[in-house]
């Protein structure tokens, strides 16, 4: 009788599993030594939990272990199957009868028997409703029911519920992620080997987001003899025009849970139905709303109770919204970024809470929302208004709003998809406002993407020579330079200056901004002579048109001081910077970012003028102020640290200078990229300090690398490339530091408060 009952406990057959070697290795180790723990394979529907458990079962059977597979459907059936397991393990009928007579707890009897025998594997599959497992009214984590860490074998549970609180302290959670591209492509090739090449399989696998259920569904479809699409490439193209059909949106058996789990579209509806059954009816509209946003991390601050109230038509509380997010996360329908603290080069000290959606979950929920909502305009309008408000909130928070601004950036272009011409100017302004915040934060890459989208829309809607379009082109040029793409930036800024001069006139404030920005870019790349002429003209014109104390006029004077310093006119540069610093303290305040900039630039000029003591004091103050006001990793702070290192080197404090410059090189490499011009400048400056510290071998190696990189990034005849080549040739005799941080100085001059149009 026990053998007959055990036949229903057989695991499903799985020939091979791709990309889950790590999880299987952990499970194999627990199989040998459970150590009082059990395993929970947890993830959203479609991630392959059952497949991994079935493969482990095959390995356990091959090793001579008893394997039992229990399929969760309801409490009564679970109890029946667990009794079958105990009987197969030798449970005496007398003990079972005693439990049935109420003389003992049935789960206690079963688990007592499992503690008497060794070398077994028990899988409880699809335990997606742990609260129903029992005993009634008690959480699973109390370990008084069918899920326990006891016994002398290994219990493995598969579930969509990935909460440690649900499963208790003895559970080893093994969350499954989407498959990497290579093993995901192999899954497709296993299923449909004649459908194309390995590269084509990987391309389709990437489009499917590495989701195992979607991969198996696609493979089965492609292998079908009557399928319309027979190749990986054809299937990938078809996804763009009829995703609902290929994902099973109209599957005839989708209303039956056992079928819904095997259909890509409906597997997640099962989880949403379960959440609704728990009283969490808000989970579905929250997921639908998130699906309207871009495929990027979403700041939780963006999704508010008021926003959900508008789209659902019901009052929504903060408690209910928090519960919806918690439920979606517990069921694996939304995740957390792998590195939530690394959201921005200059994100400040705050860390913005954020969530992410799997690409397929996002895409299919967007399709579902379209199918079930009669008026999507309500959702889009509500989301547009919330995005606009979120930008204003980030602006008002200053530095504290930078992390949210970086997270908002990928979602803002959605505003431009609105076809209503009445709201288009307002939405473009919102994108430009956020881009301005991002530039203040030093997040030039995110700002560039927004400028590109605005420019594309304005060029189509307003024309290439409209003043707003020219402003967007100018903003894009500055963002390109900030990202470390000087040639393209200067080319664009030259063209904009010509166009603005022709269309607006030579002394229009926008034209003066373009001339100033081009001059700053030229000076930042070592073209000091041309920059000097442009800046003298711009300073005269701005003084006459805007006034001598206008912030833009002060910005031109500051930039002219830097150009003079670059030309070797250090004494004149010091005088100009002293005057600008005094005026900015009076006009803008002592802690305004532009005032900090002037203090830094004055210190740099003093260093090159030989006034090392005063320069060091100013640089230490500038570094402390930048770190306190802008954050330790803001580009301005890094520039101040680099300048202080150079000043210390010039004062003979070579060891201290090397430590400071080495740290700055590491930070710039991590934050800006290894080949950003500022990073190359830091490497050059560290090499000079190492030379004077007697570390010739490391210095020569750094200079050779910097020369190769500068020649490739900036050009073989660029002034900075020539400077590194000269340093490499004369390194043994070098004794006077020369700053190579003008790129950072350009970015600092381009602070939005004084240089934007």
Keywords:
single chain; about 750 residues; mainly alpha; Rossmann fold; Serine Threonine Protein Phosphatase 5, Tetratricopeptide repeat; 4 domains; 5-stranded parallel beta sheet; 37 helices; disordered N terminus; disordered C terminus; TPR-like_helical_dom_sf; AAA_22; P-loop_NTPase; ATP hydrolysis activity; ORC1/DEAH AAA+ ATPase domain-containing protein
Structure characterization notes:
The protein is mainly α and 757 residues long. It has four domains: 7-175, Rossmann fold (3-Layer(aba) Sandwich), CATH 3.40.50.300; 181-331, no CATH class; 394-612, Alpha Horseshoe (Serine Threonine Protein Phosphatase 5, Tetratricopeptide repeat); 652-731, Serine Threonine Protein Phosphatase 5, Tetratricopeptide repeat, CATH 1.25.40. The chain contains 37 helices and seven strands. The strands form two sheets. Strands 2-3-4-1-5 form a five-stranded parallel β-sheet, with helices on both faces. A two-stranded antiparallel sheet has the order 6-7. Helix 19 packs antiparallel against helix 20, helix 29 runs antiparallel to helix 30 and helix 29 packs parallel to helix 31 (635-650). It is elongated and about 105 Å long. The N and C termini lie far apart (86 Å). Mean pLDDT is 86; it is low at 1-7, 339-350 and 735-757.
Give the C-level CATH assignment of the largest domain: Mainly Alpha
> Helical element count?
37
CATH homologous superfamily (4th level) name of the largest domain: Tetratricopeptide repeat domain
CATH topology of the largest domain: Serine Threonine Protein Phosphatase 5, Tetratricopeptide repeat
